[in-house]
């Protein structure tokens, strides 16, 4: 069984309070136009007209060569963490990159694949049969942006 995991609340609250992102900059504040702004904390789309943060995030515990950094969106106001065993609402595109990482936070080569959205859960479960895979990332198939993490439940 798998669990979709959002960015940890303590990290999100720091960003929402104006704390520096992975580039050392304050998050940009915008207003959502609706539809295309997936919050990586509540794992829902930021509603139209709601405050929106745009920032650089590194979903790894420390910088290292495999610790990808990239842009993400978050709700500007505090939101409740999403997650669970069901496919999150933010995964609304036709396909995503699903890739395994080891306990050393490095890519497990050969695990990455563009995966149809409806097959993400099965793909992640299959990746966890490989003892080298400690967790999985779901990333945009077009821009490689981090969407969420998947852990063993």
Automatic annotation (TrEMBL):
It comes from Tabrizicola oligotrophica. This is DUF1203 domain-containing protein.
């Amino acid at each position: 069984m798998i669990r979709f995991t959002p960015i940890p609340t303590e990290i999100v609250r720091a960003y929402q309070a104006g704390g520096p992102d992975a580039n050392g900059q304050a998050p940009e504040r915008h207003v959502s136009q609706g539809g295309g702004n997936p919050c990586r904390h509540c794992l829902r789309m930021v509603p139209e007209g709601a405050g929106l943060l745009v920032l650089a995030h590194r979903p790894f515990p420390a910088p290292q060569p495999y610790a990808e950094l990239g842009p993400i969106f978050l709700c500007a106001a505090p939101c409740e963490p999403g997650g669970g065993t069901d496919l999150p609402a933010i995964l609304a595109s036709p396909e995503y990159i699903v890739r395994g990482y080891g306990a050393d936070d490095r890519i497990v080569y050969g695990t990455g694949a563009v995966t149809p959205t409806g097959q993400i859960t099965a793909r992640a479960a299959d990746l966890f049969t490989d003892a080298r895979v400690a967790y999985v990332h779901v990333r945009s198939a077009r821009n490689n942006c981090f969407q969420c993490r998947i852990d063993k439940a």
